[in-house]
Amino acid sequence: MNRSVWLAGLLAACASGRAQAPATPAPAPAPSPASATSAPVPSPDTLSVDRPQYPSTYKRRANPPVLIRNATVLTAAGQELSNASVLFRDGKVVAVGASVQAPSDAQVVDGTGKFVTPGIIDTHSHLGVYAAPGTAAESDGNEATNPVTAEVWAEHSIWPQDPQIPLAIAGGVTVMQVLPGSANLIGGRSATVRLVPARTVQEMKFPGAPYGVKMACGENPKRVYQNRGPSTRMGNMAGYRAAFIQAEQYRARWDKWLKDKKGDPPGRDLRMETLAGVLRGEISVQNHCYRADEMAQMLDLAKEFGFKIRSFHHGIEAYKVADLLAANQTAASVWSDWGGFKMEAFDEILENAALVTNAGARAVIHTDSPDGIQRMNQDMAKAYYAGVRAGITLTRDQAIRWITANPAWVLGIEQLTGTLEAGKQADVVLWSGDPFSVYSKAEKVWNEGWLVFDRLDPKHQYKTDFNIGQTAPGVGR
Amino acid sequence: MTTKGQFLLAGFALLGTASLQAQTIAITGGTVYPVSGPKLTNATVLMSDGKIVAVGTNVSIPAGAIRVDATGKWVTPGLIHANASAGLGVAGLNGQGEGGVQGEVNPSFNPAEGIDPAAFTIPIARTGGITTALLPPSGQFFPGQVPVVNYAGDRIEEMLVRRNAALVLDLSSSGKQAGGGSRGGTMARVRRLFNDALEYARRKPDFQRAAIQPLSAPAKELEALLPVLRGEEVLAVAANRRIDIENALRLTREYKLRTVLFSAVEGWQIAREIATAGVPVILEPLHDIPSFDGLGARLDNATLLREGGVRVIIAQGDPGGERNLRYAAGNAVRNGMSWDDALEAITAAPAAAFGLADYGTLQPGKVANLVVWSGDPFDFSSAAERVYIKGSLLSLETRETELRDKYRRVPLP
Fold first, then answer.
1. Residue A141's domain is classified under what CATH number?
2. Which of A255, A476, B46, B223 has the most CB within a 10 Å radius?
3. Is the entire prediction scored with pTM above 0.90?
4. DSSP state, residue A411
5. Long-range contacts: A19-23, Cβ < 8 Å, 24+?
6. DSSP assignment, residue A48?
7. Do B278 and B382 belong together in one domain?
8. For B138, which of A5, A389, A439 is closest by C-beta distance?
9. Which of B140, B400, B406, B412 to mutate: most A Cβ within 10 Å?
10. pLDDT at position B351, please?
11. For the segment B196-253, what is each residue's pLDDT rounded down to a tens digit?
């Protein structure tokens, strides 16, 4: 990015995929004395692979029922209802509509002149892995030590005290996918987390959300590994193929052993375990890929190895192959107007999301940015009006889906959240005005029924530990 | 070969005349925001020969003037972006920039000859209603001079409004290396350069006879500091931490400088001091992520500075490009600034801060840079429909709109 000195260093450049130099490895900690805690000792004949793998400890908070009354409700499920109500209790949406009765114990919120949407979902974030204040010490997003690091898990880098998290909450974001960076061909597992106050990442992990794996096309891997390879796009392709050929063999060995349970189990290989999960359809592929021709290559790669690409990310040229995306059921996570900052981002157009939608494919507005994640409604609005101005047929409901229902699908949690429909989890945002306007702000944010942000009440304005004792940040103003 | 050459020459000449030849145009019926005064409904803006001739609700339109019906539209001055880059190089790509040269002490460097009038980024900036741009140099410490251009013209000379509108000094964390790794060192180095420049100016004959102690920079660099030290040119100081801003104010007092602060993330903490010093602030209103170059970042910095009496200039720096300047202003309003102040912050305020007396408002005698918007320029539902620079209507077609139209239907026929 050609930024002037006046602004030098103010922007975390994840989009540009700037590989952070790997920090010097810390010395291994000294073995601790016999643990004082009394964790259950697993039976010696179970395998580590069969034991819990960093399970979610997230627990929904008990909260009184909430009725938002007389608001304009954008359901992201086909409707925009005026003078409507939304009732949620026990973390679930109970009713959405014109005449909803408030239970006697409900907190009633007057929504007059206000708007309600589902909680916003970002398919592409590095919060926690590239935390503020942006020191090398907290640069934990790219394990740029090998072109294939499918063995690393983003959740093992996420710092729950990243002060960018409350800023995103104040923007109405309730769920995000945190990904490793794009230095590697296969960068590692993603984590889908709820944006809630937490001490550990386990307390944020979205229960039941499948893992994703980050893959990256194009310029970044071939630049980062130009001396050891891959150094070309054909080298990139050969790298993915070699990894999946190995994974096929690994999967076959394990499948055979699991069927017969004869002899010793095959050795456990974390890198292969993730890729075998992709081949089994258990782990979704989240593919950083800008150019149309590369998306076509990746779709063919997926066919060669029998998996699906759930979403391309930063799909600057998705509009050029929107028909292929529709045919392959692959979403395109895109920006509204970022582009031009590198060669593969050259052909950005404002109508990308609109044209992808119009072709029958799933468009998603994503951020890859701690700034953008605070205003995803604005990116949606920019992309919506650009489409409308260009004469592309588009509804407001389709646009609101770009930041709610469609990202929920990309993360495989569309049965649970992403729309305001009875039975869905109560991830709800009350906006001061139309979320399609620059002037509107998220006023209240409920995360599975928990009021995690209230612009009018400092008691509900979360601050991370990093914020404590520092100058007051902008949240809540 | 000859034929082709002649054709090209002829085409060039035509383009040249087209941009110079500005007719008499009356924009009628719109809601006009002159910035110099309150908004006027159902008003007319009359321009001729590239200048604004009249603005009001009772303007007589000469026979033969081109009439443009702006009923239902909003009319504002052309926006001035104080932190632009479009045009410095042909594209916005890494490696294609022209903004900076190596080294730390380059006050004499001016990137103007690196401006490419054919850069496709320029029409894209115009779609955001930006007609005038300050193009700060990139680099360390004293990276150079800031030229000001209009985003129209075939040659740099046509584009240039002012060659040396400001000199840049970086006192933020990124300028620390120039001081050997400490802000104290940076300040000492600034003072030494300033003092040497003054000494050099006083004792030029001694300098020429080499009867002077060695100076801390070559003569041409010291020369380039003098307009700032004489108060003839603005010193634009990048500073974010409160202590950096206070250091900038110290220098301003010590050397009687015309300072403009840039970025000033923690400026809100000392708004009154900045206002008292008469120092305007250029800032990005969306900057709220804490870093050790500004732990006090907050979204209402612009609002609090304005409330403290500071002249605020809004810039924008997100990867969506400078066309988003208007949304940066809209976000300042979202976070508490008044709408009128936000419009001033991207028109009259930068013009005043950098001494661009002919720009920034819709008043008779000013350069006819104006934009007709479909509605509120700060909101996403509106767009720039007509952009005039020096009285000429500019195209809003871009590389992006051409790509869009090519791929409206896929697969391609």
1. 3.20.20.140
2. B46
3. yes
4. T
5. A19/A142, A19/A144, A19/A181, A19/A183, A19/A220, A19/A223, A19/A224, A20/A130, A20/A136, A20/A139, A20/A141, A20/A142, A20/A144, A20/A181, A21/A136, A21/A144, A22/A142, A22/A143, A22/A144, A22/A145, A23/A136, A23/A137, A23/A139
6. G
7. no
8. A5
9. B400
10. 98
11. 999 999 999 998 888 888 899 999 999 999 999 999 999 999 999 999 999 999 999 9
Is the Cβ pair B284, A7 closer than 8 Å? yes
pLDDT per position as a tens digit, A403-426: 999 999 999 999 999 999 999 999
Chain B positions in Cβ-Cβ contact with residue A385 (cut-off 8 Å): 380-381, 383
| CB spacing of A474 vs B288 below 8 angstroms | yes
What ipTM, to 2 d.p.?
A: 0.94
The predicted structure's pLDDT at residue A44: 63
Q: Are B227 and B111 within one domain?
A: yes
What are the structure tokens assigned to B317, written together? 């720096």
Mean pLDDT of chain A: 91
Answer yes or no: do B220 and B322 share one domain: yes
What's the gap between Cα B96 and its chain centre?
20
Residue ranges making up the domain that contains A172: 120-417
Q: What is the distance between the alpha carbons of residues B257 and B234, in angstroms, rounded to a whole number?
A: 7
- Rounded to a whole number of angstroms, the distance from the CA of A437 to the nearest CA of chain B is 6
A394 in any annotated domain:
yes
**How many structural domains compose chain B?**
2
Inter-CA distances, B260 with A8, A187, A197, A431, Å: 17, 44, 40, 37
Amino acid at B93: L
> Which one-letter amino acid corresponds to residue B144?
G
Query: Which of A349, A372, A384 shows the shortest C-beta gap to B404?
Result: A349
Using the predicted structure, report yes or no on whether residue A31 has a pLDDT greater than 60.
Answer: no
Out of B315, B330, B359, a domain closes at B359
The CATH number of residue B51's host domain is 2.30.40.10
* Cα-based distances in Å from A391 to A258, A316, B123, B385: 56, 20, 21, 15
Question: How many helices (H) does chain B have, and how many strands (E)?
Answer: 13, 16
Residues B402 and B382 in one domain: yes
Amino acid B36: pLDDT: 98
Contact at CB, B173 and A9, closer than 8 angstroms: yes
Q: Would you say residue A328 lies in a domain?
A: yes
Name beta bridge partners: A189.
A153, A213
Residue pair A473/A163 in contact (Cβ under 8 Å)? The answer is: yes
Residue type, A135: T
Q: What is the DSSP letter of A461?
A: B
| Residue B95 confidence class, pLDDT cut points 50, 70, 90 | confident
Answer whether residue A150 is part of any domain: yes
**Which residue in the block uniquely carries the two structure tokens 């002899």?**
A263
Is the pLDDT at B169 greater than 70? The verdict is yes
Range of the domain at B261: 79-359
Q: Is residue A243 part of a domain?
A: yes
